[in-house]
C-alpha cells in the first residue's frame, strides 16, 4: 500500500522544529558537561562573565 504524501512544512513549522532541536541539543550539551564536571570534580563554570 503506497504511503500518502503530505504537504510540505510551512516556514513557521520549520522554524518551530529548528528551535525545538536547538533547545534539545543545548540541554543535552549542558547535561553532558554537568556529568563530566561531576565525574572529574571540576567546579561549575563562572557565570559572571556572561
Walk me through what this model shows.
The protein is an all-alpha fold and 50 residues long. Helices cover 60% and strands 0% of the residues. The protein is built from one helix and no strands. The chain has one helix spanning 11-40. The longest helix has 30 residues, at 11-40. 0% of the residues are buried. The mean pLDDT is 90.
Helix/strand/pairing category: mainly alpha
What is the share of helical residues?
A: 55-70%
What order do the SSEs take from the amino end to the carboxyl end, as H and E? H
What percentage of amino acids are in beta strands? Answer: under 5%
The separation of the N and C termini measures 55 Å
Shape: elongated
Unreliable stretches covering 5 or more consecutive residues: none
Biased composition (Basic residues): 27-40
Region (Disordered): 23-50
